[in-house]
Specification:
Layout: E1 2-11, H1 15-26, E2 31-35, H2 42-46, H3 48-65, H4 82-105, E3 112-114, E4 117-121, E5 124-127, E6 131-140, E7 144-146, H5 150-153, E8 159-160, H6 162-165, E9 174-178, H7 182-193, E10 197-201, H8 213-226, E11 228-230, E12 234-241, E13 244-250, E14 256-261, E15 263-266, E16 270-272, E17 306-308, H9 319-335, E18 348-351, E19 356-361, E20 372-378, H10 383-387, E21 394-400, E22 406-413, H11 416-428, H12 433-437, H13 447-461
Parallel strand pairs: 1-2, 1-6, 2-3, 6-17, 8-15, 9-10, 9-15, 10-11
Antiparallel strand pairs: 4-5, 5-6, 7-16, 12-13, 13-14, 18-19, 19-22, 20-21, 21-22
The chain binds flavin-adenine dinucleotide (FAD).
Amino acid sequence: MNTINTDVAIIGAGSAGLSAYRAAKAAGASAILIEGGAHGTTCARVGCMPSKLLIAAADAAYHATHAGAFGVHIDGAVRIDGREVMARVKRERDRFVGFVVAGVDAMPDADKLSGYARFIDDSVLMVGEHTKVHAKSVVIATGSSAVMPAMYRALGDRAIINDDVFAWDDLPKRVAVIGAGVIGLELGQALARLGVRVSVLGARGRVGPLSDPDIRDYAQRVFSEAFHFEPRAQVQAATREGDEVRLRYVSGAGDVIEDTFDYVLVAAGRKPNIGGLGLKDTSLQLDDDGLPVYDPLTLQAGAHPVFVAGDANGVLPLLHEAADEGRAAGTNAARYPHVAPVERRAPIAIAFTDPGIAMVGARHADLMPESFVTGEVSFEDQGRSRVMLRNRGLMHVYADRASRRFVGAEWIGPDAEHIAHLLAWALQMKLTVDDMLRMPFYHPVVEEGLRTALRDAAVKLA
Ligand SMILES: Cc1cc2nc3c(=O)[nH]c(=O)nc-3n(C[C@H](O)[C@H](O)[C@H](O)COP(=O)(O)OP(=O)(O)OC[C@H]3O[C@@H](n4cnc5c(N)ncnc54)[C@H](O)[C@@H]3O)c2cc1C
């Protein structure tokens, strides 16, 4: 049994853990980075990057088959080679993973440990069965995993999660996607565009992260035209028949539908990886889900020198938030007991669907009903969007009645990922709707649609 003493032990070498390690070292502490699984991060291996690679292939297929309206005809069939699609996804994914792994390889060997870590007591970790780590402070950065409801577990290897999609050598023919959150919609639409027969089955009427009912209804219509989409399906039975899965569900309209698929892709939420951490063997206060009760400002668990960062804390499961939280947790762990709040950026969330979904600032559902006005634009007649035949979308921007400040937006529409950044920057700079309307808008651009929504808000504020 080896024994190591360190200032900071970081459990998990994902995006949060890596930035915690760098921050702890930059603050002058000694640090040990502990990884139980494969290096490379969830984002690069099975998350952000391979999903965007699959979407890029899907978009290429879509545009190749939808150029006719411009008078551009592809005479002859457009052929999607599933093997080539997946080969590129994996090749490029491996390249991104390679950069992360190279960074880990460059770290001093003495700073890295392989094996799953668990607490033996408040300040001692057991890594695998080989090393005891005595740490003055600990950062829990263990990430999250897809939830697999019991009814799908019995399907064996026919019930899959996002990780499995990116291990495919070829595209299957029929996939049921369970869950209409961001991951379900992104992967569902991408597979549909690549010629897979897809049914996306949500349960509670969700459409990605949207909380504004008008935008959600609009998005539901758009996706229902693009693939088989049932946001309110109740799956009654999932049965394996050979290498197929038979699903029986009640649709939103009350019809009982039976259908057969090659795979059920479960994208029904994620939960923090805390089960194996032995937290019950510490004096940390745990909530009903077994997660340490922690201060969302400093990420500190109670008065203990333990910090929870990234997907592990279950709050903002996004890459840039994981990196920011990791940095703050690493710094706080190194400087404990002198801890400082995480510097939060303006909230921004994007679903890389087509049209894209984006949310900035306060969610519609969290705003006090009388406190704000809603500026609206439809992208259906928006000049540049129509030029490009991408004129599907509806945007709501919210402005505070008292201060005239822009406070949030939810929408589906063209170029949403870019407009989301303009809006997040405006929010962080605390701009009013009037300030934003004084900014330049070129012509003809999709952002002119945003200007229409802001003008609408300004009129309603008058
Ligand atoms: C399909 C998909 C698409 C996504 N797309 C986007 C996107 O477009 N944009 C975006 O911002 N976000 C996206 N995300 C979310 C983003 O990937 C995560 O928020 C981010 O990767 C979380 O980083 P993390 O460091 O918290 O966790 P991870 O990167 O998962 O790191 C946690 C690490 O801890 C290790 N670990 C766990 N338990 C232990 C233990 N006991 N001991 C030692 N090691 C342990 C794990 O092996 C893992 O390597 C996506 C996620 C998925 C699944």
